[in-house]
Design a protein that fits this description.
Elements: H1 10-18, H2 26-36, E1 41-44, H3 51-63, E2 75-78, H4 82-95, E3 103-106, H5 112-121, E4 125-128, H6 130-138, E5 149-152, H7 155-160, H8 164-172, E6 179-184, H9 189-198, E7 203-206, E8 217-223, H10 234-249, E9 255-258, H11 262-274, E10 279-282, H12 288-299, E11 305-308, E12 323-326, H13 333-340, E13 350-356, H14 364-371, H15 384-394, H16 398-401, H17 411-416, H18 441-449, H19 474-477, H20 482-485
Parallel strand pairs: 1-6, 1-7, 2-4, 2-5, 3-4, 5-6, 8-13, 9-11, 9-12, 10-11, 12-13
Helix pairs in contact: 2-3, 3-4, 6-8, 10-15, 13-14
This protein binds adenosine monophosphate (AMP).
């Protein structure tokens, strides 16, 4: 099917052509005509399927006629994270370049004054995280009574992050007669309940299972040897040594390194930097300006490594990420699929490595069950244990601070094996190997027996901070004496 068969106008088709798209993706083929008809949509689709254009293109078409009134947006797109909201706003700009539509990006951590000025001018589309939208509503800067189209994107992520009460409140402030487009990567009972509450006779569109990792991503498990002592942090230290070896052994152009805990993001980032790697960090506790700068630097290719929490797992569309490293096995199987989906994008090849320590093993079986196949163990030759212990012996002063003995980067690998640079990934002989018992049946049995834990926003060792981080509940932000302020 061609874009021209979907009912889009000449101007939108021109913007699509300018973006370099030749054929619509399956979700675009199915959703665009339905949205143009004015019907509600329930899309089960993950990021990377072209889902953003599947709702923005027809929205631009619909919004092209009519004008926005001050403080009364005509459409709203709700996103779970600031990064995703900013990305959707930039997509809107790309696809709407031949239209004069006003958009407002309402996200926490950015100047409220600027956002209020945009609202005052009248926004055709408002792209927001739930907390900031409610906050501005409660301060009287916008009304939702003129909203004709509502998009709830990444609904399952909203649920994980504790945003659903805010989403429900936002929906209750909108007219009942509106068009609603609801997207989620998974469709559990709670998501189904929300869809039933928000949508009227929707067209259900499912494009691919969330459990299907991109075919373009090669996946590997890497066993982390048990530390020689039981001191706190010993396992993490072993993991850092294994990770450094992998980064040097692989032809890493740019990589995302995922940790389960925000504090580990900081520790790993500092350690990699001390070891001479070009690394930045991203997690929900950083100031928005820092998050924006970090992502910009990484997108532009100025830094090789982005150490991050799952805030970066969903939806971030950065081409050219050659590798994903799971420093920790994610506690929730779907997060594995989202994390590794940051590489191997747009038809490129990617490689994903998951470090497995003794304590990580319990999460492996549910990942293997979800993706429906075993993940191969990495490499032949010397074992990771050997490599990691050599590093520890070579640099005893690292024991306390994990400090490098010599400047690193690509130098050591270059000296040792320059020829490997020119070999294809299949020909390369990795210098690390996992122990053969990694995916042994008893591991699977042990993990199978483990009760399925409810999804939480953060790793279980860290207290879940529902409603904070990306989002501050509106009542905390409200002025105590609003009358006196004015
Ligand atoms: P999304 O699933 O919306 O995050 O989109 C993933 C990536 O696919 C983005 O980089 C889009 O620019 C790109 N994309 C969306 N639609 C198409 C298309 N029809 N052809 C090629 N690339 C597309």
């Amino acid at each position: 099917m061609e874009f021209s068969e979907l009912g889009l106008s000449e101007l939108v088709l021109r913007a699509v052509g300018d973006a370099g798209y030749t054929k619509p993706t399956p979700i675009q083929e199915q959703a665009i005509p339905v949205v143009l008809m004015g019907r509600d949509v329930m899309g089960v689709a993950q990021t990377g399927t072209g889902k953003t254009a599947s709702f923005t293109l027809p929205m631009i078409e619909i919004l092209a006629s009519g004008r926005a009134k001050a403080r009364m947006p005509r459409s709203v797109i709700l996103e779970p994270t600031r990064e995703l909201a900013a990305q959707v706003a930039s997509n809107f700009e790309t696809y709407g370049k031949h239209h004069a539509l006003n958009k407002a990006l309402l996200i926490g951590g950015e100047s409220m004054g600027d956002q209020i000025r945009v609202l005052d001018r009248g926004a055709d589309v408002l792209i927001a995280t739930p907390g900031r939208l409610l906050d501005l509503f409660e301060r009287g800067h916008l009304l939702l009574s003129d909203v004709k189209i509502l998009v709830i994107d990444e609904a399952d992520r909203m649920l994980d992050m504790g945003f659903i009460p805010d989403v429900e409140r936002i929906v209750s402030l909108m007219p009942r007669m509106r068009q609603t487009l609801f997207f989620s990567a998974t469709m559990g009972p709670e998501i189904r309940r929300l869809a039933d509450a928000f949508l009227i006779n929707p067209r259900e569109i499912t494009v691919s299972s969330s459990a299907t990792p991109a075919e373009t991503v090669e996946q590997f498990l890497v066993k982390v040897p048990a530390p020689k002592d039981n001191r706190p942090g010993s396992v993490q230290k072993e993991k850092r040594a294994v990770l450094r070896t992998l980064i040097r052994d692989e032809e890493v152009r740019t990589a995302l390194i995922f940790c389960n805990r925000k504090r580990d993001v900081g520790v790993l980032h500092r350690s990699l930097t001390r070891h001479g790697f070009g690394a930045v960090q991203l997690h929900g506790d950083l100031a928005q300006s820092e998050r924006t700068e970090t992502l910009a630097a990484f997108r532009e290719g100025g830094v090789q490594l982005l150490v991050c929490s799952d805030v970066a797992a969903r939806g971030l569309d950065i081409t050219n990420v050659s590798h994903v490293f799971n420093f920790d096995v994610p506690a929730h199987a779907e997060d594995y699929v989202h994390r590794i989906g940051r590489t191997g994008r747009a038809g490129r090849q990617g490689r994903a490595f998951t470090l497995v320590s003794e304590e990580d093993r319990r999460y492996l079986a549910s990942i293997i069950r979800l993706i429906g196949r075993e993940i191969p163990r990495y490499g032949e030759g010397a074992s990771v244990a050997a490599v990691a212990s050599v590093e520890t012996v070579e640099a005893p002063q690292i024991q306390a601070q994990d400090e490098p003995k010599r400047p690193r980067g690509r130098g050591r690998r270059d000296r040792r094996d320059r020829g490997a640079e020119r070999r294809s990934p299949a020909e390369r002989q990795p210098t690390v190997e996992v122990q053969p018992d990694l995916a042994a049946p008893e591991v699977a049995v042990e993990a199978e027996a483990a009760p399925q834990r409810p999804r939480r926003r953060e790793e279980p060792h860290e207290k879940a901070v529902v409603g904070l981080g990306d989002h501050v509940p509106a009542f905390l932000l409200r002025e105590p004496f609003p009358d006196k302020r004015r």
